[in-house]
Amino acid sequence: MTYVLTALVLFGSTSGKIQGVVTDEDTNEPIPYVNITILNTDIGTATDNNGYFHIVYVLPGTYTVEVSCIGYQTKRIQDVVVEIDQTVRLSVGLFPTLIEMEPVTVISEKPAVKKDMVSTTYIIREDEIATIPVDYSFALVRFQPAVAIRDTALHVRGGRETEVTYLIDNISIMDPQSGELAIVLSKGIIDEIIFLPGGFDAEYGRAMSGVINMIAARPSERLQIRAYGKTEALMPYYYDFGYGNVQTSIHTPLTKQVRGFFAFDAAHTDDWNPKLYVLPHKQRDDYSIYGKLLFAPSGKLRINVSGAQSRMQFDRYNTLWKFNLDHYRSDMRAGNLEVINVKYTPSARSLLTVDLSRLHTELTFGVREPGSHDVFDNFQFCDHLTLEWPRASTRNPFGVYARKPYSAGDYPEYGNKSSLVYKLNTQAILQLHTYHELQTGFEYAHLDLENFHYFVSNTFDVIDSYHYKPREVSAFVQDNIDFAGAFVKAGMRFDYYSSDIDSIDPKLIIAPRLGASFLVTEKFLFRANYGVFTQPPLYDHMYSFYNLLPLPPYLEEYYKEFVAPVGNPDLNPEKTSSFEIGLQGEVQENVNMTVNTFYKDVTDLIGTRFVSALPVSYIQYINVEYANIKGIETILDFETTFFNGKVSYTLSWARGSSSYAEEVYRQYAYDELDTAATPPLQEYDLDFDQRHRVFIQGAFNFPFDSQLFVFGYFGQGFPYTPPSPEGKTEERNVLRLDFQRQIDCVFTKSLTIGNLVLTAYAEVINVLDIRYPLGYHYPLIPYEDIKPWEFDTYSFQSSYYSPAADLNHDGLITPAEQVVGYRELALQTDDWVNVNSAPRRARIGFEVKL
């Protein structure tokens, strides 16, 4: 009997691979020179002397593979599903025959386990993407076991937020200065997301915790139009955060060889980071445009030209400025990406890829001009030379004279930062031998980084301005060794970066990667991997204020409160040594289980330390911090006719000496640490250490083309540091916030009329309306500092007089009235609203597909 099996192996690309062996059904001997054809394509090959064949480049899709040879009955294998970054294996037996017979057709079957997975990989496919209750592509991994969300920051397996890299079709979309996303795209353009939380291949650099590769839609051969809209305006005022989103896309076949895909997205919200209720000055407006043209003159050559443009802008809320928010900070980031991708297959056993890309992003922040605007109106920022130093005043609802919260003056900063990145990336995949596939690649990046950062002062203004052109070079080589019962990946990555400062030597990084897997039984797979993952420092950490050294004397008092740490262009790369062991398999029919264990040592993390210098001492970035992370992930997948779902549980420990690079700087600035002493390296639970976490995803299939999707999250609260009576603490993160939990639901109903498909969406976030604390809160003015016996002045027709403080309106503000005013002010500065999770929200949406 002939068995046709498929197995999977990961390699970085936007295509898949088919390989296999053809044997004589009677003798079980390999058959050489058999024709292998993928029907309805130009792709084909022939078996070698040992009956093996390899096709290293196949676009994602479902195919029929025809296997034919003189003297044998032709066989067609249907439903061969090729997916991105995966290999399909076929084992085909042919019956010998002396007469011509009709081809026999068989159905491709998947094995119980994917024996070639040497590291953890989570794949989010198009049908799942459509139902996840988020609209931004970068947030689609939030329900994966390796992810912890703290406020708006995404942390993968206990790593810092900046240790994750985001790609679109294998092209980085990260701002190399800040580590933020350079462009923001909607999920409407995404076909698939490949999420690698550890053990990723040698081709991936500038990432220590995770790689999120978002695969954009491939232009279709037929005309397709999609329109989608969503709003939560139906909710009562208290629950309506003003969210709305519109998406459109079109696939346009221009000729047989040229076709395109174009998409547009726009979104608005009155509160981009919802908490207990809508807060002022948190509006956000985004839009994005994406396009891709495919030119495929033959089965050997494909040229993709793609481009994206996005703009996001939002206002910020801060309790320090709650009585003067129109003079607080707003941000606007615009970005664009252009890519030319060329893929050439000289033969079925080789693939050459060349990518030319240009990424540009510009961030502007400061005080914006007041007034309303629509989604497409860019913020206009106030002239930085007109900004005023924040000062004490009586312009608060209680009329008392106070410096904090700020009620007069402006946010004292204006910034404009741009990054321009040109990249050339080449890769080759060569099937050298039946057991060896060689991958190699080279990348050169030329960066053009500019920054203008202005600080207003009550004495002297401060300007941090720089323009550098660093360069980065990387190369990798990896051997994928494929044996009958085992699979090994052995790779090495080389990274080189130069700071564009003559006195600073360039840095060279060597990072080995090794992974292996083998079948324990037909239904269970064991795998393990080890790797060194490195990340060059962010260029903000290298260049900020470096040009101002030695700092001028007038910065001595001003520096600690507003000016950030000084950059260090001689920073070394951060490094993670990671081990992972996994077991996955089928525990019963349609029920699969995966267990992943991981251990990470993170060294040379960037932190900040005090530097004694003349005329002014300062705080500088330095490689001084470390972390130790370990954990276990358990995932249970199940599928039936009416229900399919996934339950995951993660137990992890993330401990280290610093949660983020500026942590010690903030202790110096706000906790008034003794600058004469260096704080000792002490290990503690990091801010994003979530010991226990459970995710639940379920899909219920109902009659009449309707479905219910459920997303559940349950997690231990994050650690925090309570203030001591003196305002300082000796230990970090000794307490934990309350347990977190949330259930979201999405209900869909589809109606098909000819080629037209109408779908209605009902989305409820936080179905049970559960709120939980996200942080510790306390008043900006400690109650104990308001001592009635210290108030002995009267205000009468003076600059300190305010009618709001004159409670009996007799024209005189007494000490007793001042005490009442300060107590009310302290109460208003306790930011309890902003540290509690959002209430229930409901949205409705409609989608039209043609």
Explain what you see.
Among the domains are: 16-107, Immunoglobulin-like, CATH 2.60.40; 783-828, no CATH class. Residues 1-12 have low confidence and may be disordered. The longest helix is centred in the C-terminal third of the chain and has 14 residues, at 815-828. Helices cover 5% and strands 48% of the residues. By secondary structure, the protein is mainly β. The protein has five helices and 41 strands. The strands form six sheets. The chain has a 22-stranded antiparallel barrel. A five-stranded mixed beta sheet has the order 3-2-5-6-8, with no helix packed on it. It is found in: Cell outer membrane.
Tell me the radius of gyration: 30 Å
CATH class designation of one domain: Mainly Beta
Proportion of β residues?
A: over 45%
Question: Segments where pLDDT lies below 50 for 5+ residues?
Answer: 1-12
**CATH architecture verdict of one domain:** Sandwich
In CATH, what is the homologous superfamily of one domain?
Carboxypeptidase-like, regulatory domain
In the CATH scheme, what's the topology name of one domain? Immunoglobulin-like
Distance separating the two termini: 44 Å
What share of the residues lie within helices?
under 10%
Given the structure, what is the number of helices? 5
Mean pLDDT: 89
Q: Based on DSSP secondary structure assignment, what is the total number of beta strands?
A: 41
Determine the structural class based on helices, strands and strand pairing.
mainly beta
Largest sheet: 22 strands, antiparallel, barrel
